TrEMBL record, chain A:
Record protein name field: MtrB/PioB family decaheme-associated outer membrane protein
Signal peptide: 1-25
Keyword Signal belongs to the record: yes
Pfam families documented for this protein: MtrB_PioB
UniProt-listed InterPro entries: Decahaem-assoc_OM_MtrB/PioB
SUPFAM superfamilies from the UniProt entry: Porins
Native organism: Rhodanobacter panaciterrae
Keyword line: Signal
Highest taxon of the lineage: Bacteria
UniProtKB/TrEMBL annotation, chain C:
Cross-referenced Pfam families: Cytochrom_C (PF00034), Cytochrome_CBB3 (PF13442)
Ranges of residues in domain Cytochrome c: 48-126, 134-235
Gene: cc4
InterPro entries: Cyt_c-like_dom (IPR009056), Cyt_c-like_dom_sf (IPR036909), Cytochrome_c4-like (IPR024167), Cytochrome_c_Oxidase_Subunit (IPR050597)
Signal peptide: 1-24
Originating species: Rhodanobacter panaciterrae
Name by which UniProt lists this protein: Cytochrome c4
Amino acid sequence: MLKRKPLTALLGLTLGLASPLPLLAQTDASDSQRVGNIQFGNSLDPTGWGAYAVPDPVGMSYLHAGQLRTPTGVLYPWPHQIPDEAPLGTGDWTYTWLAQFGYIHTSGDRNDELLRMYSGWKDGAALGMFAFSALNHKTGQYIDFRGSRISSQDQYYRMRAGRYGDYHIEVFYRDIPHTLSTTAFPLWNGVGSTNLTLPNGLATGSTPAQVQAVEANRPRQTLSVTRQSEGVSWESALSRNWIGYAGVTHEKRTGDRDWGGPMYLTYFFGAPGPGGPGTPNIPGTYGGQYDTVRPVDFTTTDVNLGLRNKGGASGWLFNFTMTGSFFRDNKSTLNYAVPFAVAPGSTSVATGGTWSLEPDNNYYNVRLEASHPLKLWHGEFSISAAYSSMRQNDALQAPLSPMYCPSGQFLGTTGIACADWNTTAALSRQDGDARIDSGLLNLRLDFRPSAKFSWHLNLRQRDEDNMTRYTMYNPLTGQYGYVPENGAEPVVTGQTELFQPGSPLYQSNFAQIASIPFSYNDRKTELGGSYRVNQNNTLSASYLLDHQTPHPRERTYINDQHLKLSWDTRSLGSATLRLSYEYQKRSGGPYNPDPYLAAYSPSMPGYVPLAVGDTAFTVAQMYKYDMSNLEASKLKAILTEPLGTTATFTATLYGNRLRYGADIGRQSYDTTGADLSWDWEPTASTSMSVYAGIESSRLKQGNVNDNEALAFSSPEQADTQFGGPFFPYANFWTATDNERDVDAGAHFNHVFSPRVRLDLNYDYTYSRGLNSYNYASLAAISSVYLPFLTAADIGNSFPPNVYRMQTLTANLNLGLTRRVGVRLYGKYEFGNYADWHYAGFGMPADLIVGNRVFTELGPQPHWHAMVVGVFMTVKL
Amino acid sequence: MTATRKSSLGSQRTRRTTGVIALSLTVLLAVMTGLGGVLLWSSGAQAQQTDNASAGQAPAHQPSSRLSESDIARMLPSTDMGAGASMHGDMHARAFDGSQATPFDAAPIPQNPLAPGADAIGAKSCAVCHALETIQASHSLHVASFRAGSANTGPQASCEACHGPGSAHAKNPAAAGLIIAFTHDAKTPIETQTRTCLSCHVGGARQHWIGSAHQERGLSCTDCHNPMTRSSAEGVLAKDSINQVCATCHQDVRAQFNRRSHMPLPEGQISCVDCHNPHGSITQPLLKTDTVNETCTTCHAEKRGPFLFEHAPVGENCLNCHSAHGSNQENLLVLPVPMLCQQCHTNSQHPNDLLTRQNLRNGLVPDERVMERSCLNCHSNIHGSNNPNGAKFHQ
Amino acid sequence: MSSTHRVLHLVAAVILWLPAFSIAAAEGPPAHTPATWTDLRQQQPITGDVQAGQAKSAVCAACHGPQGLAIVPIFPNLAGQSATYLYVQLMTFKNGQRNDLVMSGQAAALSDADMRNLAAYYASLPAKPAGQADAASRGGRLFLDGDPAQGVPPCQGCHGPTGQGPRVYPSNTPQPPWSTFPRLHGQSAIYVTKALGDFSNGTRSGTSNAQIMHNVAQTLGDADIQALSTYIATQ
């Protein structure tokens, strides 16, 4: 044993299990314990097994026609033809293989974002499938390989090998594409790096017209991220009842995605258009927003090691897992130069911005699950405990970049010296030192006192300890707080987020001066039972009290109660109906609209309140939807109805009604939907299905504009009451998101003759979202727009968002000889898209709007694209 | 000063939290040390356990008159999923008599409560009538593993290890219930079906099967798995892929993957089981990790942080803002920005304005709070910022 | 729309229509699967006109006897046999999936209606009275219990505990074509021996049922066949 399986033996020895007899537990290679890399497929073959999905006309049994059904009543698909095998060498091994290779050609709008979202279509040679399997019929040793490649961004190769019931090894390599935009025209040079520079001819202080002229000629780029991952895992029976497993995955994510770049709000500074109200305004020349492009250059290494016991003599089922995940960001900053001065004439400072991208982090998790049967009432006791820790200790970067705020310069007229902020000496500490630990304990008792009745009690407590404490304190200046928006805000407005006790300039500033260490603890208590009324009817009920104690949040505790009732029946003929209803009621402690004061300057000694007070943090009547009261009803029914011996009808009906106890914040969220499908498998060589579904949802929210005239000028600005002077009823507005989704399709699969097989799919998706709004008076909009806009201009909705896609996919397999065939693949996709976020962005020059630079035009409004592939299939 | 702040923000919290965390750690350690003891004890206790188990079983042959409710209760599986050593003891003793065979061929034959008098007859007899089934099953992982190593003796247990003793069925095949069946209209109770599978496939991913949503709603293993054919690349599934299996019942969820932004499931790059463990879990809805966020951050590890500045709803639950399967907005968002953010941000000044169609690029007053990435144009580090200037996530 | 685009649309259209041509094209090469045997899995019980069958039965009586009981043991008794079984046999004789020097010729002349009528007629005749079979004999054990060691399934499963046809229960699940399974009781030992031999060596393999019987017969040794034939003959 030591020679044959050193790793196994090593693990066994470590745990003191080295047993003289190699009595093995059965491994089962089940992957349903770990997250990710379970599924290997691609757009050419989503199941990853399509090449073998050749119906076998002989069927499943000589004894009866048709296929049997699952216990619920769904037909099992007809069996696939069994691939031929051949002996491998002279031993007991046999093998089989299949290769499908050919050429893919795309045409039409081949660059459309939605066509390419997760498909790396590329003209050129492609590997539809290469699969190889070998099995030793005597020893149960096996090896399975399959791989497919559409392009270098979209491919997978995976090998599994082992011995049945003994050990199992898996190795994979894969690339998954994610296209984020194909209509990006970044203004900057250096996309993909950590330093975005202005193209020739532009420097901070340019006019919108100058920038527009350059932007109009920027090349189109695709923003995408590719996940390249590889992994190896192992699972093996160590002794009679012990199974060990381990795995390492390494993932590299590279690419670019759209990002931001604030240099202070510009909307404040517009001026009426030349035609007066009703004509487009003249964008202001202060501030700036930059839709930049950030690099993605991540690696994540996951390690997991575990040991489990199948029960054995002690009767305890154990599962012990240790997980470590190590994330590394190879490009953790982003600097960008800006073409516009944040204030006209002030070009010397705030000529760019800097971002801290995600820091490296480590995550550890130790988990133990154990369960044991109880003599009482055929019971089972189960305990799970886990401890996890998320840690991050990256070097912090200087608040401002010395490139854009060089030493010797000052931010506008504020007297803030760049030298005091462009170095890490300005920080209270040099590293992130962030850490959140959490502990979980879950206890469960299940009992089955009689054949008809069972009940359970589950207690679960999960607590977090957020140890991150960061105080924004600059030892160079003795100030707390920060210089917002890369210094742009002080330059434009003279305002800062700085606080300094004893300083007349800063002692009354309302500023955030520390991080807020959020933590969420929760305790769930569930009691449930199930009663089998008779052979065909089961009733279940459960009550769950979820007691959450978030900190520091608007409520110190929340009680979320769930009452669930369900009825599962087979009494309606041969159909199975599963019906469930859930009533949820959430309440909690008093709602404090501003629980964060401890992290703000007024909590500090030396804070001198102004005569006009602090501006209200928020309106008192606003309830955040994760903290607010909630009363919800959810109903769902799933019906599976066998039709004769060859067809099945399935229907799903559902409706959710959520009422949040809020006027301001989320008010309600309703969803109603239905899905129907019909599957038909008349013979072993024909199957088809038709489906259709509809869902509509409606989310309503309320909000109130503050009385901007009072801000910083009147003590009434501190009034947090809705209906008061600062949040008057007249400023109230509501927004409703109405969405309607329809999907339908038909699938048809037929073997015309042993040599001709057709697979045809049509899928249709349509969704329409309408964002409408209502307001008490025009005071709901920003006061800066009052001179420009009338109620008629505003109307009551955004233009509808539409996403419609129709896809026709055909696979025709023609057998030339027993071993050689041709696969013709065709996919025709067309659709249309409208999203008001991108409304008006038609060409690259449109991306410059006043002091704002955008990057993307958004997905194409209409697209037609076709992908065809010709493949040669060769098999053993 | 800094130290004071630190304690005022979190000391009380820390103490309380540390309590439960310490408790969970203690439990972990206690059970770990307990493992060693259990191991030593287990070999000695086995014989005794076997006796107990056989004593507790229903008599093998009894008059096949109608079963009373109490008979059924007596025959019910205890909820340990057959974890007792008795299920496995014999099997391994027989399996490892020096041969190269995998342990399967010595698998125990489960009792069929509906045919208490039946005897095992061996796979040879089954295969005579069920010839096509045998061919198909032999090429699926499940039965292939039974066949391996039993080439000389024949895989005698391969049918009855799951279907129970076959003699009664062979004599009267049309009478339902005489073997353990796993299909629609089978007279075999679902509990017997699942217990049969779990007697070998015990623990691991199925540790929490009892009490799981699928167990409580009366699903059987064969609602999702079909060990009689090889339909799927892996997982002995009842359809060609995991996603097709799940979509049989969860049609509404399948439809969500057709939306404008979605997880790459229709493209075949991910499956439901990448995130969910359909066999049961202690985290709703059948998640593999302890929280929603731990599931998401397995692949989106950069969003795990922790960051200097955290955004309250982010650390709480990714689903506060994202719908995990698919959405009509970009980036799986529940609502379009800025409405998404304006559900909570009613603070003074720029967040709480009503923004309208006139704020679009082609409106009268284009506004950065609406165009393109809206709020995220500036607050891009919305998942948390590690920049000392990043309290508002805009650096 | 570019010209390549248009061309590709055309290609797609062709691909989508190809099956229409392929069906015709595919008629040529013979299918390698079920054509070699008649699929009885969907065979429904047949009906026929007993009177008309009787009118056609004169030739049959020459061998199978005036009351459907064979005059020499080499021929099977037809009286009380399952009509559907009889019909299927005639049909397979006629289309060549079962061969017999005499029967192939006889069946060739029959129309489908004739076969149904004849089958119905013989099914309506009183079966041979039950005999005194020895359940404890080797044949009896094989018939009733099978022999797990050899992999012999009990015959009674499909042919009934007394050889008078299978026991059938109402069910919604796909069922075997029970009506196509013959009643065996009282068939002569010589005939049963021949039939099992034909199944075993593949002479009689023209139906889905024969595929099963081939496997069954293969598990039986010569002595088993003898014992079984004797038992069945005395049933």
